[in-house]
Design goal:
about 90 residues; six-stranded antiparallel beta barrel; Elongation Factor Tu (Ef-tu), domain 3; mainly beta
Length: about 90
Amino acid sequence: YVSCEEARTERPQLEFVVSAVHWLEKPATLSEEFQVKIRHGVRTTRCLLQDLGEGRFKIHLAEADGGIAPGQYAVIYSGATCLGSGVIE
């Protein structure tokens, strides 16, 4: 999925929701800090996860990001380990 400029947020966001989450290694607890990669490239951002149920999670970013758009994938890491990913709503 490639998003258009119209789908981009007007201002940087500190949180967003992902659905259709697929875990490669589901974390035992959500009380720790994780990292998330939103677009291609090497940059990750520190984050916290909140389970909303039914395969949906709210991601709380440590730093605001202005490039978040629906349909993009958010990939969740614990250090260098990829835990899983979900589609941004």
